[in-house]
Amino acid sequence: MVIDTLLEKDNYAATEWENRGLIPSPSTTVKLMSSATKLFLNDLKVIAIDPSNDDRAKKVSELVDQLPWGELDTEEKEFLADVLAPAIQSVGLNPWAIF
After folding, report:
1. Which SS3 state, helix, strand or coil, does residue 8 take?
2. pTM (2 decimals)?
3. Which of 9, 55, 70, 79 is the most exposed place for a label (fewest CB within 10 A)?
4. Per-residue pLDDT reduced to its tens digit, 32-41
């Protein structure tokens, strides 16, 4: 499952920043992004496995709105969105319609 893979991965390791052509953000920002990612993915996993969940898009949109967007610069926001997009897509939603 995509969500589990992302939960196990160090999504914001220095090499991941370098692969994007970026200098890694300060460790406090990386910790914030990692924490927000793990919380989001765990909540998304609950939404994904709930068979009675008819309003999945709304719930995922609410999760996205709760992310710490105001504390991130443009590159960090894009990085966070790029990390989360495959997980959102794995539950049958278009991430770019939600972000």
Report:
1. helix
2. 0.93
3. 70
4. 999 999 999 9
